[in-house]
Specification:
2 helices; 80 residues; 32% strand; four-stranded mixed β-sheet; Translation Initiation Factor IF3; 4 strands
Length: 80
């Protein structure tokens, strides 16, 4: 599983970096994104609603948000 170290980046950069990483992934692949920006708690789930990918888990450890994300199939669960 790939880990993105997005600590120290401010909105909208964490969501944009996650979007870029997801485009390079195959369906079913997982990625973990580590963020310190509190707005990522809103931005990343919203991004996943747009892309159809799935948030498997969200944990917080010492001010670091850890998002475990699974790449969905193209168009899966896509919402407008």
């Amino acid at each position: 599983m790939t880990t993105l170290d997005l600590k120290g980046l401010k909105c909208p950069l964490p969501a944009l970096r996650v979007r870029k990483a997801l485009k390079a992934m195959s369906p079913g692949d997982e990625i973990t994104a580590a963020c310190t920006d509190p707005l990522a708690r809103i931005d990343i789930p919203n991004l996943l609603n747009e892309t159809g990918d799935r948030l498997e888990a969200l944990e917080e450890d010492g001010g670091v948000l850890l998002f475990r994300i699974r790449k969905g199939r193209s168009g899966e669960n896509r919402r407008l």
